[in-house]
User: What shape does this take?
Amino acid sequence: MITYNKSKFFNILIVVLLLLNTVTVCFLLIRNDKHQPPHQQGGAFNFLVKELALDSMQIQQYQVLRNNHKNKADSIRKEVRVIKDSLFNLIKINDSSDSTIQQKLSIIALHERNLNALTFNHFKLLRAICNAEQQIKFDKVIATAVKMNAPHQDPPHHHPQNGRPPRDEEPDGRPEDDNRPPPPRGE
Assistant: This one.
């Protein structure tokens, strides 16, 4: 009889815990969706469509612009990655010339310049398909949209989980195996 009561108790406890876990997960998912920045809820495209109140014809034109921009930008970014890889492979070569390094850096800078020009022209074309009222709104929200389009990079020593440093870093941002004393306060 006692074994039966224990078994029944544990079964009820397991069901209650499963229900609590399910409710908690649902709550977290719903909460995260509401608190995400606009660029994580559909990107700059959806943000601009909504903010500018684009009509269906403008949305179609914008989709064509976006797809063209994305294809060209992805191609440039791919080239930059290849050149950066070849640049950092030069580290393995002890006598790599400064002119080779400078040449690769110049090519990277040129591609970055082309990418910025491409993005500028993309938004200039988008502004051109807007009516006068939409252009006023566009001028107010373009900075936000550009930031949404930018590749996301964490600042140095950014600790995304609960503000705590990763396990291999000390609280001052130094690796654990760094034998130097910590910097004085204020540095």
In short: Helices lie at 2-35, 43-52, 56-89, 98-128, 132-149. Confidence is low (pLDDT under 50) at residues 35-41, 152-171. Residues 7-36 form one domain. The chain has two domains: 7-36, 42-149.
